[in-house]
UniProtKB/TrEMBL annotation:
Keywords: DNA recombination
Transmembrane feature ranges: none
GO BP of this protein: DNA recombination
Location of the region described as Disordered in the Swiss-Prot/TrEMBL record: 1-20, 37-67, 213-240
Official protein name in the record: C3H1-type domain-containing protein
Domain of life: Eukaryota
Pro residues composition bias: residue spans: 222-237
Higher taxonomy: Eukaryota, Sar, Stramenopiles, Ochrophyta, Bacillariophyta
Compositionally biased spans, kind Polar residues: 37-54
Entry-linked Gene3D superfamilies: Intergrase catalytic core
């Protein structure tokens, strides 16, 4: 039967017209079908591509139309080749299609090409290849079987060139394409709801997408011709035997060209079975590892093409018409024929060279495609056939189940584990998606994929070599049934590796349904994830271990499961629902993809089993020997075992926390806490126990996820991370630095340092504006840091407030400028009028779109003064080294509080109490507060209203202060809790939340929050709050109902009878004076530039010296009442006590205890009654500086004995230094007030310098000597020591030490500097000499005034900057040298001397 008869018979049958799919997106990387965009669609008959070929008068044919081989020239005529036989020309139509002419009256030759003369055939070949007027469709020729039909069958010498079975699935084009310009057509997006699948198939010949332009099978139009793009290079070729395929194609072409000598057994589209076929599993789904089949979804005509072509149901004409509809259809048939004989059995064998694979081999893709063809494009059959590493078949699940039963793992947990391993994931998945919805997610990868394509390809190579994905050529996705495509995205986080995620929630239209909307996870079908409690378990474990053994070091370590989610396999029947396309490859996920909502829930089952099994395996002593090669690679911190218990922070035993010991008193097996894929264990520094814990963790992972077999696959454990993490007391775990010695949790420096830099530079004073996204990033980073620095939450509320305000501004801006945003808001508003399902889809989609527009808007917002001040405060606090960013573990765990307190407030007063801490307090709100409450204001129209929530919050803060005061004033106890916790209960929910998270709305609440932040900084007492009903909060409520303190005190005896909780409690009412003196000390420190008044990083001696300097300022009269107000000794000691409390309140050692030299004692001992002079101070030293007394005149060598005059002829007082009789004083009228010796009469002149006034200093010295009952003939330079009447003498050694310490602080000299030795008591006389010399007094005056017997004082004159300045001024004077005329006449004796000299 020849072709002409076939065509005539087909025309007589007149087959009904049915819609054929016109494929958009041929799935090439450059999408060749998109190159030939058309307007509209058209239903095409199965024979239309052959019978409806336009003639020359119908106009130029469209490129790619109906499988066309030629294009008509612009003149509408095809030139004939110069044939040898001019009598009969070959029919143009016949030559064009290679079949026959449709015109029965055509007089031209219609013989088959094999009967043409050789010269005619060669001439036609030359015309096809060389004629410019004959345009060649290069897009279709490489995939067009008609081309092979014409070329291979008709030209024996071209058959070798076009052999299809050699090394390529599509032969290279031998023709040069001619550029034809084209204009793509843009289709507007549509918002109509999708139709059901069946309706969609019947209503349109293709499933359109607003993002694609479809190639159409339509008649030529007047639109300008399209512009061709460069041809896609052919893919790499698989290696297999080519002779059988070439012979099959030759015979196939002969048969359908009407040649009689074809082989009937080899000319079928579906050849006979390959030789390796009998060894393959049948098409019945094999049960791999116990997988059970699911129900399939509906098909589509694209997915039915291969079965249709394989079936032989359609005739030749219809087959050729199908192949001509689109290049990919023809490519499908060619690929199937080419790979029919390919032996793909090797792909299921593990690759021994998997570790060295650098890219996905093309041979593997074609082998996968051949196997895919064999199982009729069924992904579940393909997955089951591959088995081995792909399905985790190497795991002995049934043996594992027996092991779990052996270790008494929960039966319910074992059942769930069996389901995960034997059936697959998810737990429940029944879904149906239209073809339109699937194609809507087609090639929607995030731009980050293209931006980082080399990195993505390296990631996919890693996935393939670990058998986590099945790679296939990308174009087969159009024909495989039951596939859904999910876009991919690169998640980038600063400081972390990029992670490729499965964007399973992204929606593109209101009616699109991503894969996460198809799962049943929101309906509760999956397990709840409980790994969020892991951090609490770890911290509790550390705290209880320290309480159990205070002197033992505690270590932390972790084991990591490699590719945890991928270890859990998907059910084979839903494998196609989790596919994606990257570049030119289609990937089928075998393991759980990172991004599907059921992945954490299914891993949660394995995680819980892993925790229990690793803990149970601890007692197996053989595991250390079994895994010795891994244990020997562990890294140990060198400080382990070298730190004594005194360096460890104590913790308290808590009956509500789990004990680390068994009921018999022995240490229990080390528990394992797994956070997602990190198995963390905490243990005492006992090497045997640590190794047993690590070995148990390794063994548990091998049991659950398969043993180690590096020759076949990667290990399920990341041994690199196991080695990199040192076994140490300080480790970075779950994003925080945990110190088991100090029992603290801190934020890592590599997180805080960039944050500090950002606040100082990017958000510094120079910045004027921000975007919402920038503010959200900053708020997120500050929120992360506030986990270990809870005070930070209370000084950053305006960051959130500014962010909320910026979002409101963005909304208003988008409403006025963005049409799409207004449309989204309109759709949200109209959604409730639709049916419930459609309303939910529409509203959720446009809510997400509008939120995305709001948060990604580039509108900039100015930084307000309040926000700038808050950012500056945050920056200063984080940059202050004295403010810790760490938090004690005891403040973060749910432990028993040291005491429970209750608070309440009314509009008149507030009160609180604690029977555990034995205090109660009451505070009457002042009139300025009461007048701004609801008692006097009806609303907040003026903005002055103080809300009750603010008053309740203030009550909580006062209660916390009272609790801290009660704890701090307890008797010293070496076993006391170093980090106690107080629980405050209140009946106001808002104030309870503010105390934990900070107030973001109320300005008064934010101000109180800053006060709370200051209280939490460096505070050893932690704060927790909880809610209590008003009916239970009786005592605090009763206290707050009194209007004033007098009313309360009057009713207090009655109150004690009704409220037994107050019995034994004392009132918390700290004196105002103490607080004022503390504030005075803090103000003094701020005035002199000390960032931290306590200087915790300085030595104890340095802190003692700073406190001594504060005492000096008090002695000089710098008190609360102002400068020049001198205080008594007892008042001075009160100031010192409160300054010292500032140190001890922060749990710092007292600066007065344990120091080599107590400078504070030296100064306070010199104070008595009303005077407060210390000779070593600036004011006291003035008596020595101004008269420049020698060392022997005012100090001695010992505290109790003094130097005596040894001259036997001396009959006066024997003291060398000054005594009281040496001083004389005069009043304003010059009347002598006291008899003194002649030596001191010329030294009693008062100066105008009140700081360096010797008269005032000497007067205080004399008065102090009188108060101390000093004998008249004893040295007057004494100070009080110990008891009020006890005294000591000033020594030269003390003076030297003081002067050198002052010089060290002033000039920033190290303690080892040799320059410090230049300071001594003699420096006072040296200073006096230089001062007089600076004042330009003569040498004789200096010598006489300072009582030098020789000119030795000249050696003490220094070349100071004052003398240098005077020298410079002298050099700058314009002084003319004297001339002879300026000289006076010589005297007679001068003339004589001049003559003698001459």
């Amino acid at each position: 039967m020849n072709v002409n008869k076939i065509l005539r018979a087909s025309r007589r049958r007149s087959p009904p017209t049915m819609p054929l799919p016109v494929f958009f997106g041929t799935n090439y990387e450059n999408d060749q079908a998109q190159k030939v965009s058309r307007q509209g669609t058209q239903e095409v008959s199965l024979t239309s591509s052959l019978s409806s070929v336009p003639g020359p008068q119908e106009g130029p044919a469209t490129k790619g139309q109906g499988g066309s081989f030629f294009l008509w020239s612009k003149e509408g005529k095809m030139p004939h080749p110069p044939e040898a036989d001019k009598t009969k020309r070959v029919c143009l139509m016949h030559a064009r299609k290679g079949l026959t002419c449709s015109n029965p009256r055509c007089p031209m030759v219609h013989s088959p090409p094999s009967e043409w003369p050789k010269s005619t055939l060669e001439a036609w070949i030359k015309v096809i290849r060389d004629t410019d007027g004959l345009l060649f469709n290069d897009d279709t020729v490489p995939h067009d079987i008609v081309v092979k039909t014409l070329k291979i069958a008709c030209s024996p010498h071209l058959r070798q060139r076009w052999s299809f079975g050699s090394n390529d699935l599509r032969p290279p084009s031998r023709f040069t394409p001619v550029a034809v310009p084209r204009t793509p057509v843009r289709h507007p997006p549509t918002l109509t709801p999708p139709q059901p699948v069946s309706d969609a198939i019947l209503s349109t010949p293709c499933l359109s997408s607003p993002q694609r332009h479809l190639p159409l099978l339509s008649t030529p139009t007047t639109a300008p011709p399209p512009t061709p793009l460069p041809p896609t290079p052919p893919p790499r070729q698989p290696t297999f035997a080519a002779s059988a395929t070439r012979r099959h194609l030759d015979e196939f072409n002969k048969k359908y060209l009407g040649l009689a000598d074809f082989d009937t057994t080899a000319a079928s589209l579906v050849p006979g079975p390959p030789p390796f076929l009998p060894g393959l599993p049948s098409s019945v789904p094999p049960l791999a590892a116990g997988f059970q089949p699911f129900i399939y979804s509906r098909g589509f005509i694209e997915t039915c093409l291969l079965p249709l072509l394989q079936s032989g149901f359609v005739d030749v004409t219809t087959t050729i018409a199908l192949l001509a509809t689109h290049p990919l259809v023809l490519h499908l048939a060619i690929s199937y024929i080419s790979l029919r004989q390919y032996d793909f059995c090797w792909i299921r064998n593990p690759n021994p060279a998997w570790a060295t694979q650098t890219s996905i081999p093309s041979t593997k893709q074609y082998a996968m495609l051949a196997c895919f063809f064999h199982y009729r494009l069924d992904t579940s059959f393909l997955f089951r056939y591959l088995g081995n590493n792909y399905t985790g078949a190497y795991r002995e699940v049934h043996s594992t189940l027996s092991t779990l039963h052996k270790f008494n793992i929960s039966s319910e947990l074992i059942t769930k584990y069996a389901r995960v391993m034997l059936t697959g994931c998810p737990n429940h998945f029944v879904a149906e998606s239209s073809r339109a919805n699937a194609l809507l997610h087609w090639r929607r990868n995030h731009p980050s994929i293209v931006k980082k394509l080399p990195q993505v390809q390296a990631t996919m190579n890693k996935e393939d070599r670990n058998n986590f994905v099945i790679p296939l050529p990308h174009w087969i996705a159009r024909f495989a049934p039951h596939l859904f495509f999910t876009p991919q995205h690169i998640l980038e986080k600063p400081g972390k590796k990029d992670r490729q995620i499965f964007d399973a929630s992204r929606r593109y239209t209101p009616w699109s349904t991503p894969i996460n909307m198809m799962t049943s996870t929101p309906l509760g079908s999956e397990e709840p994830c409980l790994f969020g409690t892991t951090k609490d378990e770890i911290l509790t474990r550390i705290y209880t271990l320290r309480a159990d053994s205070p002197n033992l070091d505690i270590i932390s370590h972790a084991n990591d499961v490699k590719s945890a989610f991928r270890q859990i396999k998907l059910h084979p029947d839903i494998l196609g629902a989790f596919s994606y396309i990257i570049a030119d490859q289609l990937f089928l996920s075998c393991g759980q993809p990172f991004g599907a909502d059921f992945c954490p829930a299914n891993w949660e089952i394995v995680r819980q089993v892993l925790e229990h099994l690793a803990t149970a395996l601890f007692d197996d002593n053989t595991l250390c020997t079994k895994h010795r090669k891994y244990l020997d690679r562990l890294q140990w911190d060198r400080s382990l075992g070298k730190t004594h218990g005194s360096a460890f922070t104590r913790s308290m035993r808590d009956p509500n926390l789990p004990s680390p010991r068994t009921s018999l008193g022995t240490l229990a097996p080390t528990p394992h806490s797994v956070y997602v894929d990190d198995g963390i264990y905490i243990e005492f520094f006992k090497k045997n126990r640590i190794e047993r814990a690590a070995a148990a963790s390794i063994e548990a992972i091998f049991i659950l996820l398969g043993p180690s077999a590096l020759a076949l696959r990667q290990d399920p454990i990341s041994f690199n991370k196991l080695e990199e993490m040192t076994i140490a007391p300080i480790n970075r775990i779950l994003g925080h630095v945990i110190d088991t010695r100090r029992l603290t949790v801190d934020t890592p420096a590599d997180f805080l340092d960039p944050l500090r830099e950002k606040l100082s530079s990017a958000w510094g004073p120079h910045r004027r504006s921000f975007t919402v996204l920038e503010a959200e990033t900053l708020a997120g980073q500050l929120g992360h840091a506030s986990f270990t620095a809870p005070w930070l939450r209370h000084i950053m509320p305006h960051v959130y407030q500014s962010l909320a305000s910026a979002l409101r501004v963005n909304r208003a801006h988008l409403i006025s400028t963005s049409q799409s945003f207004r449309f989204a808001l309109k759709q949200i508003k109209q959604a409730p009028s639709l049916p419930p399902l459609q309303a939910s889809l529409l509203a959720s989609f446009y809510q997400a779109e509008s939120a995305r527009a709001l948060h990604h808007s580039t509108t900039r917002h100015f930084i307000s003064r309040t926000l700038r001040a808050e950012l500056g405060l945050i920056c200063d606090a984080l940059n202050d080294p004295t403010i810790p960013t760490s938090s004690p573990i005891s403040h973060l765990i749910d432990r028993t509080p040291l005491g429970t307190a209750f608070s309440d407030s009314s509009l008149l007063a507030a009160g609180g109490y604690s029977s555990d801490l034995q205090f109660w307090w009451f505070l009457e709100w002042p009139p300025s507060v009461r007048s701004r409450t609801l008692k006097y204001l009806k609303n907040n129209s003026t903005g002055n209203l103080i809300d009750i929530n603010v008053l309740e919050y203030a009550a909580i803060i006062i209660t916390f202060l009272a609790s801290y005061y009660s704890i701090a004033h307890r008797p010293p106890d070496l076993g006391a809790d170093p980090h106690p916790v107080v629980l405050i209960r209140t009946d106001n929910s808002s104030s309870e939340a503010w105390a934990q998270k900070g107030s973001r709305v109320s300005f008064s609440g934010r101000a109180l929050g800053r006060l709370q932040a200051a209280l939490l900084m460096r505070n050893p007492v932690g704060l927790r709050t909880s809610h209590i009903s008003t009916s239970e909060n009786v005592v605090a409520d009763t206290l707050s109902r009194f209007s004033n303190i007098n009313e309360l005190l009057t009713s207090f005896p009655t109150l004690l009878q009704t409220q037994k909780e107050l019995i034994g409690c004392r009132q918390f009412h700290p004196t105002v004076t103490d607080g004022t003196r503390k504030n005075h000390f803090l103000s003094w420190c701020s005035r002199i530039g000390l960032p931290d008044p306590c200087c915790p990083s300085s030595t104890l001696q340095a802190r003692n010296f700073i406190l001594a300097c504060y005492v000096v300022s008090l002695i000089r009269g710098e008190t609360i009442k102002g400068d020049g107000f001198f205080i008594r000794h007892s008042t001075l000691m009160g100031y010192v006590a409160q300054a010292t409390r500032c140190h001890t309140d922060r749990r710092l050692p007292s600066p007065r205890l344990g120091v080599p030299i107590d400078y504070v004692a030296l100064m306070t001992d010199a104070s008595a009654a009303r005077t407060a002079l210390l000779p070593l101070s600036a004011t006291g030293s003035s008596s020595a500086v101004t008269p420049a007394a020698a060392k022997s005149e005012w100090c001695n060598d010992h505290h109790t004995t003094y130097s005596k005059i040894k001259d036997p002829l001396w009959s006066g007082p024997d003291a060398v230094s000054f005594i009281a009789e040496d001083f004389s004083f005069y009043d304003a009228d010059g009347i002598r007030l006291h008899a003194v010796s002649a030596l001191s009469l010329d030294q009693g002149k008062c100066t105008s310098n009140t700081v360096l006034c010797p008269v005032a200093a000497m007067l205080r010295i004399a008065q102090r000597a009188k108060r101390l009952d000093l004998p008249a003939l004893r040295p007057v330079a004494v100070y009080a020591h110990g008891k009020p009447t006890s005294r000591r003498q000033i020594t030269g050694h003390a003076v030297t030490s003081f002067l050198r310490s002052v010089a060290q602080q002033v000039y920033k000299l190290p303690s080892t500097s040799p320059q410090l030795k230049l300071w001594s008591p003699h420096s006072i006389r040296v200073t006096a000499a230089n001062l007089l010399h600076r004042a330009r007094f003569s040498d004789s005056f200096i010598k006489n005034r300072l009582r030098w017997k020789s000119d030795s004082f000249l050696m003490y004159l220094r070349n100071t900057f004052y003398t240098a300045d005077q020298h410079s001024k002298a050099l700058s004077l314009d002084i003319t040298p004297p001339t002879l005329a300026d000289l006076r006449p010589l005297e007679p004796h001068e003339d004589v001397l001049t003559a003698i000299a001459a």
